Amino acid sequence: MYDLLDEFITHLRVERGLAQNTIQAYSRDLVRFFMYLESRNLTPFEIARGFIRDYVGTLSSRLSKRSQARNISAIKTFFRFLVSEGRMKENPARLMETPRIPRKLPDILSLDEVMQLLVQPDITTPLGQRDRAMLELLYATGLRVSELVGLRVSDVKLEAGYVKTLGKGAKERLVPFGEKALQAVRAYLSYGRPALLKDGHPPHLFLNFRGKPLTRQGFWKIAGNHGRAAGIKKRIKPHGLRHSFASHLLEAGADLRSVQVMLGHVDITTTQIYTHVTRGRLKELHEKCHPRP
Fold it and tell me: What is the percentage of the chain residues whose pLDDT exceeds 90?
């Protein structure tokens, strides 16, 4: 079974081009499923549709609906792969229904909160220059955190004012950024990054104090520390600046299609969630400012 899993993971990575985080999640979900099969002395080729439904039922008391939905998606995709490879004739998970997940509105920082956050790093130090450059660039481009920490020096086109990134599905996109982010990145490249370099010449743009590429977890910790220092009561979440980037653009009149392209969303309905946020903000302003609310 685990040889099949290795083949499936290679398929997801090479042929489907899925994001590494998605691949890791599917791998964990399928290992759990295989352990369940082993406990019953079964293989994937010996089960029927009802068995999978029973297995998913065992997850309901342990996992959230979102995690259950991802488990079902992983199982369905795995069996679809086996059918496409001629290993099975029918997909026993084909008719499995995925739980409906209520769409949660993202947490948005106000413009004032973003400004407070951006000025927190001490730009007289190499680490402060790095932090300012990361925060400015993230708010200027709306990149995912994984995309931000994955940037290489060669991906930032200072003269042209844009970054090149690989998003979900290994799809490349170009995202513009403005003068503030340009100044912060240029200062970091001139002074901060050379001071952080140790042995070797890593291609990654953002480095930790050991001179190694910064991780997503490292960024979350940094952003959280600066958020607390700024007195922001909201928890600074991984995609907080990305959500704020999208919401603030739409509030200022940007069209939905352009925001979709910059965010790297395949489906515009994913981007439309920010229009709900914007409408909510307009309602708040109306109730607060209109003479007859």
Answer: 29
Residue 12 CB neighbours (<10 A)? 21
CB 158 within 8 A of CB 183: no
Residues 129 and 252 in one domain: yes
Tokens of 95: 């008719």
Q: Looking at residue 46, which CATH number applies to its domain?
A: 1.10.150.130
Judgement on whether residues 207 and 248 belong to the same structural domain of the protein: yes
Q: What is the DSSP string of the chain?
A: -HHHHHHHHHIIIIII---HHHHHHHHHHHHHHHHHHHHTT--GGG--HHHHHHHHHHHTTTS-HHHHHHHHHHHHHHHHHHHHTTS-SS-TTTTPPPPPPPPPPPP---HHHHHHHHT-S-TTSHHHHHHHHHHHHHHHH---HHHHHT-BGGGEETTTTEEEEE-GGG-EEEEE--HHHHHHHHHIIIIIHHHH--SS---BS-B-TTSSBPPHHHHHHHHHHHHHHTT--S---TTHHHHHHHHHHHHTT--HHHHHHHHT-SSHHHHTHHHHHHHHHHHHHHHHH-S--
Rounded percentage of the chain residues whose pLDDT exceeds 70:
89
In contact, 271 and 263? CB cutoff 8 Å:
yes
Residues labelled catalytic: 144, 168, 239, 242, 265, 274
Q: Are residues 206 and 275 in the same domain?
A: yes
Average pLDDT of span 244-260: 83
pLDDT digit string, tens, across residues 133-186:
999 999 999 898 889 999 999 999 999 898 998 877 667 888 889 999 999 999
Spatial CA neighbour of 29 closest among 50, 11, 48, 56:
56
